[in-house]
Amino acid sequence: MNIRRIVLDVAKGLNKPTLVEVANAIGKVKGVDAVNLSVNEMDMETMGIIVTVEGDGIDSELLISTIEEIGCAVHSIDEVAAGKRLINSVIRETS
Known about the structure:
alpha+beta
């Protein structure tokens, strides 16, 4: 399957690894062309981040193992886009 986008909910230590270290490690994964890290939660010891990765033929298993090897925990896979092109999600309002 040609994975082009994957969005993960990840937890990391407050100080280590740094966001830059996480982004650098993810950027080295096969198929990754772009990485975006957004902090969505913080407490005294941990930081929750949303990891968005785009590319062509992203190795999802290597991506997750890379994130875990640098000391983070993947809580969930929240979005996957695959195929010949990307489709952006459309949110429909209900009446």
